[in-house]
Each structure stands twice: as structure tokens, then as C-alpha cells.
């Protein structure tokens, strides 16, 4: 009697991670573009360091990078692979569904970590921004937390929309709105009502938590509320994205 050996979960995860990291390395041109956007913002905002502070400049750069990775990078890659039948073929084998998405998200979190470290390095070398050791550590973890929010938002979009071209256009529209409305609204350019709304939008709460984490001594109750709002967005977007997602 022939028996079927089911691979262990650790073995499956290891294989999926190797495949996903290999894929992102082969598409490193796209990876470089995603990483260059926040670095370009960081360098171009050098003149704002003396006016608004180094933490504000770094937080803004990280927030823009998180949006690029969560919306443009993760969402479009999932939509493309689903359209090509990659997920459907993976599910034929002895692979748990959660390991497939967990591997994808792990790769994106690793990208977020690399991006954050690059921003810290360029901030020190080019913009001459220096923070406390605690500020760098807290800001690093705040960036990962903010990245989870945008990854869950991307998961919701790709779960709601099946067509990869529509996913691409939708994520670009959301990206544009977050960048333009978020940045201009946070400066008060669009009025007080928009400024208040932006503060509690996904862009606003992530930017506030990251900026305050870079200077932990400035943490207030308002920041705690922003952190709770960020966690709430992540849970809601994630649950909806999982519920709506179709594998084919």
C-alpha cells in the first residue's frame, strides 16, 4: 500500500519563502523603484529639516514608502499571480492556504525593514538627521506596524477586485489620493476640515505614530489614540481582505 508523505509546515514555509525572495530578487528593478521613491522624498525635503524637524521628514518618507510597498508592490503582485494561476497551482499541492499568504507578507515586511534602515542611513548621511537610539528602535517597529496597515489595505483591494488591470488602476488612484491629499492636508493647505480628517485617515495615523516614535519623549494620549486607530484599520482591512479574497 502506497503512502503519501505530507511535508511539514516548516518545510513548506521555507520553500515558499525561498521562491518568493527569489522572485522579488529577479524583479529587483521594480524593487529599486519602490525603495528609491521614499529616498528621493527624503533628500528633496532636506530644506524642511530645520523648519519642521528631522523626525517629521523621516516619518513622511517612511509613510510614502509604506504606501508604495503595501499598495503598488504587494497588491499588484498578488493580483498578477492570481491571474496567472500561480495560487491555484500552489493549492493543488499539500500546501495550507495561510502559508502562501504568510510567505508573501513576510517578504513584504522584510522589504519594509530594508527600506526603513535605508531611510535612517540616508537621513544621517545626507540630511544630517540624528535621533536617539530609542527613537530609531521605536521608529523601526512603528514602520513595520504601519506597513501591516497598508498590506492589509492592499489585501482588501485585491480581495474586492479580481481583474488585475482594475487592481492596478485602483491602487494607483488610492496611492495618488493618499500622497497628495495626505501630504497637502497634513500641512493645512486644503483647509481645517480636511486637515482634521487626514489626521485620522490611514495615512495620518501611520504618519503620526511613526513621527512620534522617532521622538518617544513626545508621545501623548493623542498618539495612543492614533496607534489604536492604526491597529483598528489593520484588523478591519485584513479581515475583509481575507473574507473577500478569491484564489482564482
From TrEMBL:
InterPro entries: ABC2_TM, Nod_factor_ABC_transporter. It is a multi-pass membrane protein. Keywords: Membrane, Transmembrane, Transmembrane helix. Its main location: membrane. The chain crosses the membrane at residues 31-48, 54-74, 95-124, 136-161, 173-191, 225-245. One of its GO terms (cellular component) is membrane. This is ABC-2 type transporter transmembrane domain-containing protein. It comes from Chitinophaga flava.
